[in-house]
Design goal:
Elements (H helix, E strand, L loop, with lengths): L22 E6 L11 E4 L5 E4 L10 E5 L5 E7 L11 E11 L5 E8 L7 E8 L5 E7 L10 E9 L3 E13 L5 E6 L4 E3 L1 E3 L2 E6 L5 E10 L2 E11 L4 E5 L4 E3 L4 E11 L10 E9 L8 E6 L6 H14 L5 E6 L12 H10 L6 E4 L2 E2 L7 H9 L4 E10 L2 E10 L3 E15 L11 E9 L5 E5 L3 E10 L11 E8 L6 E6 L1 E2 L8 E8 L2 E7 L8 E6 L2 E7 L3 E4 L8 E8 L2 E2 L3 E4 L1 E2 L6 E3 L2 E4 L6 E6 L4 E8 L4 E9 L1 E5 L6 E9 L2 E9 L1
Length: about 675
């Protein structure tokens, strides 16, 4: 169940031993992009709380972030809306948090309650911390405020904010415990997957006081349901991931809604209700190598930035050619970096960066630290479902850029970003002792807002810019690099990135690609790029390299079969490769009319409808299946003729199972 804040929850329900979930008084996961509605700030540090896109505390992005600046020494409280504890004598509190200290210091965090609007606070839990790291709190609490109808909770920081760089908080819960309860916390299928058979996994939390020994769960995708009984010991308050034994076959280029439901626990005959979670899934045509995008906020007036710069230099040296990097200079501390730009300031505002150093990996906040080796490696090994390529050349003080942004699934209102960076600068030396800086952003094209575009699955969008760099802080025109990335501006997720190639010839993709099966032959054809001189073409089938450096404008595979679903062609140049152009493989247009066992199917191929006519027998039931074997329609007939409207079907091959008085037949039809 999606986590929401329960305001003034009523606790007067008739509770069953087999309640499907506990009674949540507060359940806040800080998923929104702004501070949650109804919460307030009290005490010191009221300007230090904000929502971060990170998941450093151990939950899921986003999370609550308490930063050190502006400095304070005291107690900073983040206070919940009023809740009703009239019938509550004790409760469970849960909290994830992560302290990040400057040096050897100690600070306190805790949870408190108040029934007089914050004038008096009663601490129900607190602890002192002096080491960085993830901590999870799970405590049974009582308070003098229990039994009252108007109570506020808070969690608080007590200490000197100069001693920390940040403190992250997530998943703050206050609830009462029933004997047996379960919460569906997540569907563990990525939002975008490559087509094909994929496991369906989910995570539950035992929210009751008794162990969960068995449960009945089901998943439903596009109207099809699969149910399974799971046996596993899940202790009280613990979480566990489960995977259905039956995988789901995702078709390429389709969008899906998947829901998971828990219906029974521990062999009980009582059906649970509303223990269900849903998620939208995009099935991509293919996947490609991810190039992690590093965004780094720093300043030559920032002392702590020196160590982070050193660590980032070591990280990138170990991963040469595996990253894209842009560093934005800050207008603080003090006078700030001499190379600060308004576009860099806009990027700081976008990410809510209030102090440096701060790093982001693929749009996810890494805190006031260098990106770790583990996080970078995990990002690099995660498949990407979009790709980016570009080239640039320099004429005097003008830089000319051409860039292509490609997606394997349908993207709407995404933004393409282009930055011109100088690889090494020395003119912005200030007070932190450093004498040179790297990947420093000089210009964003068109600007800091990026370039909004829609991209259909398997296609790409092209951008071109020319800009006179004499208006920037550039030191040497022959020392420039161009960073390209594709980002969801709302969620901040970066789909993929790449440095542009420095060359006069742009790596244009192929044009007018097609892919179809005729008989046993898979034929893939394309037109040459609109300009440029590729040395050959790489052909991929189902994401696997099928042929390399093909010189012709077509390729035929002779052992084609129905397992082939997508094809891609990449133009290869001396200085690099273009983005791919991808297509779903379809049947050829020469499918003949089928007449078998006195049943006619016509017209075939067809666009709007198909007729079935039986001679000497009667049609009883018609079932239509797609090429993945999933039934999409069932029709009761009891006549010798029927017309099926297929105008709403996607283009491709469909199989029709025809039940007659004399048995079953399977016929094939092509939807244009």
């Amino acid at each position: 169940m999606r986590k929401t804040l329960l305001l003034a929850i009523a606790l007067l329900f008739s509770l069953s031993v087999f309640s499907q979930e506990n009674i949540y008084i507060i359940n806040e996961s800080f998923d929104g992009s702004t501070l949650p509605q109804g919460w307030t700030k009290m005490g010191s540090g009221t300007n230090n709380w904000y929502i971060s896109t990170s998941n450093i505390a151990g939950g899921k992005p986003n999370e609550l972030h308490l930063q050190w600046t502006p400095p304070f020494n005291g107690i900073a409280r983040f206070v919940s809306p009023t809740v009703d504890l009239s019938d509550v004598s004790s409760a469970i509190i849960a909290l994830k948090h992560y302290p990040s200290f400057f040096g050897s210091h100690t600070a306190t965090v805790g949870v408190a309650t108040s029934s007089d609007n914050g004038n008096t606070w009663n601490t129900v839990w607190s602890d002192q911390y002096s080491e960085n790291g993830q901590y999870t709190i799970l405590e049974n609490i009582t308070s003098p405020d229990m039994g009252k109808s108007s109570v506020k909770f808070c969690f608080y920081f007590e200490g000197n904010s100069n001693h920390i760089s940040s403190w992250y908080f997530d998943d703050f819960e206050v609830y009462t415990v029933e004997d047996l309860g379960v919460e569906l916390t997540s569907i563990d299928v990525p939002s975008t997957v490559k087509f094909g058979l994929r496991p369906i996994s989910f995570t539950i939390k035992n929210s009751g006081s008794s162990p969960i020994e068995s449960m009945v769960a089901s998943y439903t995708i596009n109207g099809e349901t699969e149910q399974q009984t799971f046996f596993a010991n899940v202790p009280s308050m613990e979480s566990k991931e489960f995977t259905f034994s039956s995988k789901y076959n995702f078709a390429p280029g389709e969008d899906y809604n998947i829901s998971v439901e828990i219906s029974k626990l521990n062999d009980s005959d009582e059906e649970l209700t509303d223990v269900v979670l849903s998620k939208e899934i995009a099935s991509a045509l293919s996947q490609t190598q991810r190039t992690p995008m590093i965004e780094h906020f720093s300043s030559s007036t920032c002392g702590p930035c020196v160590a982070v710069n050193t660590q980032m230099a070591a990280l990138t040296e170990n991963h040469e050619g595996q990253y894209t990097y842009t560093k934005y200079t800050s207008n603080g501390p003090g006078l700030g970096d001499p190379y600060f730009t308004a576009e860099g300031g806009a990027r700081m505002t976008y990410y809510n960066v209030l102090g440096v150093p701060q790093t982001f990996l693929n749009g996810i906040d890494q805190g006031y630290n260098a990106i770790s080796e583990d996080n970078f490696t995990a990002s690099y090994n995660e498949p990407a479902f979009a790709d980016v390529r570009g080239t640039f050349n320099i004429e005097g003080n003008t830089i000319n850029i051409k860039a292509d942004f490609m997606s394997y699934f349908n993207m709407e209102n995404v933004r393409a970003f282009i930055t011109v960076n100088e690889t090494t600068t020395t003119g912005n030396v200030a007070s932190n002792g450093e004498t040179e800086f790297h990947h420093v952003m000089m210009k964003m094209l068109e600007d800091a807002e990026g370039n909004t575009m829609n991209i259909n699955a398997g296609e790409y969008q092209h951008l071109e810019f020319s800009f006179d760099m004499s208006s920037t802080f550039v030191e040497e025109m022959n020392d420039l690099e161009v960073a390209l990335w594709l980002q969801n501006y709302e969620t901040k997720e970066i789909y993929n990135s790449h440095y542009a190639y420095e060359n006069n010839e742009h790596v244009y993709p192929v044009r007018n690609m097609s892919a179809e099966i005729n008989g046993s032959n898979l034929k893939i054809s394309w037109n040459a790029p609109e300009t440029g001189n590729p040395t050959g073409y790489n052909v991929y089938v189902n994401g696997e390299l099928e042929a390399e450096n093909v010189n012709a404008l077509e390729y035929t595979k002779t052992d084609a079969n129905q397992t082939h679903k997508t094809a891609e062609v990449v133009a290869v140049y001396e200085n690099g490769t273009s983005v791919a152009v991808a297509k779903i493989i379809t049947a050829g247009d020469n499918v003949e009319e089928i007449i078998a066992d006195n049943i006619n199917i016509y017209p075939n191929p067809t666009k709007d409808f198909v007729k079935l006519n039986a001679h000497g027998t009667q049609l009883k039931t018609i079932k239509v299946y797609n090429c993945l074997g999933m039934m999409i329609e069932e029709i009761e007939v009891n006549a010798n003729e029927v017309e099926i409207n297929i105008s709403g079907y996607n283009s491709g091959i469909y199989f029709i199972n025809i039940e007659t008085e004399n048995g079953n037949q399977i016929q094939k039809v092509l939807k244009k």
